[in-house]
Design goal:
With about 90 residues, the protein is mainly alpha-helical. The chain is built from 4 helices and no strands. The chain starts with a helix and ends in a 19-residue tail after the last helix.
Length: about 90
């Protein structure tokens, strides 16, 4: 992919509704460049338990999810592929 195409790929076209209201096009966060979302729908109890686990481990949800995805890859004999890092800035503790 050449540089011009890559730059255009990072600048999404504004939605028709946004254009009608005269809003500028949305700009994705740099941490989301060249990535795709992977998600699922779970019960409220599962989500609550997940959030508690994230807090207990002092991690971002993204980091814990990366660990879980890598465990699935390992289980099926595939190399781990997901770096266990967060794109967000960590909060400093007082």
């Amino acid at each position: 992919m050449n540089a011009g195409r890559q730059e255009k790929a990072l600048k999404p076209e504004p939605s028709p509704a946004a254009m009608a209201r005269g809003l500028p096009p949305a700009r994705p966060a740099r941490t989301r460049a060249n990535t795709r979302q992977l998600s699922g729908h779970f019960s409220a109890e599962v989500v609550q338990a997940w959030r508690v686990l994230v807090a207990e481990q002092d991690m971002e949800s993204q980091e814990l999810l990366a660990m879980g995805i890598n465990m699935v890859f390992e289980h099926f004999g595939k190399p781990t592929r997901v770096p266990v890092v967060s794109g967000r800035r960590k909060k400093t503790k007082p």
